# Entry
Amino acid sequence: MCGIVGYLGSELAAPVILDGLRALEYRGYDSAGLAVLGPNGLTLRRRAGRIDDLASLIDEETLQGTIGIGHTRWATHGSVTDHNAHPHADATDRLVIVHNGMTDNVHRLRDHLVADGHEFRSETDTEVIAHIVGLEYAAEGSLSKAVATTLRQLDGAHSILALAADEPDLLVAGRVGAAGGIVVGHNDTGAFVASDLPAVVQHTSEIRVLQANEVVTLSRETAEFTDLNQQPIKRRSMSVPWDPVAAAKAGHRHFMHKEILEQPRTLADTIRPRVTLDPVELELDGFDLPLKATSIDRVVIVASGTSYFAGMVGAHYLRDVAHLPCSVEVASEFAYAPGPISPQTLVVAISQSGETADVLVAVDRARTVGAPVTALVNTPGSELTRAADEVLHLHAGPEISVAATKTFVSEIGLLYLLACKLGVDRNLLGPEELASNVAAIAHAPIAVARALELEPKLEQLARRYHHFKNFLYMGRGLAHPIALEGALKLKEISYIHAEGFAAGELKHGPIALVEPATPIVAVVLDDTMRAKTLNAVTQIRSRNGRVILIATEGEDLHDDLADDIILLPPTPSTMAPMVSIVPLQLFAYHVAVWLGLDVDQPRNLAKSVTVE
Ligand code: G6P
# Structure
């Protein structure tokens, strides 16, 4: 949610910043801007729209400096206009900041400043912060002190990056609250700072992470970390295994397409380091909870969006394989109404970004009652990796498209491994059962690869259906979360209304919506729910409903059951969620392409939502 980039070095800053912003555009794309400090002082360029619109404003003047900051915005305070785009300057116009977050006490702060004669040129909270940094700078004479003092005055979760014309050889970034990551790194040309890894890994794989209530002062060669009282902090660097090429489109038209197609490999990357088949072994990164597995009385999974639906699949696994009562909670609901949780409740937090504010608040809530937290995270160094007791990394590599795909499949794979691990630790899973489970998950990437071979069929299906205005998605058991995620994918990137529901509920309401103009996507797996879901399909057909059936082959399938049938490769039913989502991802993708929409950056959304 909002992307911050800064550079200070021997290269021209503007192109480096633009590249960084492009790598972070998934975090927000309402407007973009940059400020560069050159021989003629600070030059600002800002524009509502995408990074390419900003790039068209880059001229000789902006190309003069080798130090600068940039921003891509997901609007919170203030509408989407040029004058609300970041960076924002202080009252002297000699200092600029970019900002990620929302200031809860902005009105009070602004009123004080207005009473003191300050005038504002935007409706943003960021400009208010810039004016405060400017005042503190005038008082303190040091940009890092000014940033620290300013951050102490702000309520909410923020990160800011500041540049002052009077200190032309440094950048200062600061952070308060859980949300709003900042990573820094150096290479032999200079220093890089950004909200997230994709903007930095193209320059260096050695990074340091700014934590809550800290400030970092960057020179071309050094990074000095302090707390908000200016006390020095030692911060080790970490090596990020992300290949810069992994964050590029690699010849695909869209990141989403690339990310769907790379799922067999990314799922294998999640699974293979943790299991061996001969001898059968399952090792979860030294998984070591403060609580013994046998003392866990139940599991609560907390997550948002796509990760929440992966959690729904995981709950089935934890109940079936580890015999644990398990509920799945939308993180933003759990955060303020967690219900009765105790130190015996294992809380499993799932987040691709590791930065979703709702998830971080939920985890904080769990920890206040002493519940141990295990986090499943894709982004190394993210806030959730520090907030949890145990971290299981997805290893799915950077996911750039706003609509999550490969991380959904990796989250499910990792949840299955977690369920098996808890099953073993709770003495419920004997060697034979473990061997069969491990064999099943080890083969899942191959089944996913076979599902990808369906793409030409899905493209044609999308061509036929992309003009429909409403879709229903249904499934039962493990297919239920898949139906929900399939509907979410369609609505996120094609803006078509799509609603998912448990197939058993058809008769309790959704059946009233059945008519030929509302196609129903039915997901039917090879499990105990199959006959019942097919009954629901028959009920739809008897009411002239239009059905797209996504199903594993079986004698019970006949042509008049559906208008279109997509046959899934044979897969053990426990693994079927990871396979059956593939055609739904491809369908949503091709519908959006047929509609000519911006697949990777759908309107109003952002990939990391760092505000509540
Ligand atoms: C945002 C994204 C969704 C994502 C959700 C949770 O809303 O647009 O695609 O599923 O956040 O993200 P997380 O990083 O916590 O998995």
In short: The pocket of 6-O-phosphono-alpha-D-glucopyranose is lined by residues 304-307, 351-353, 356, 359, 402-404, 605, 607-609 (CB under 6 Å).
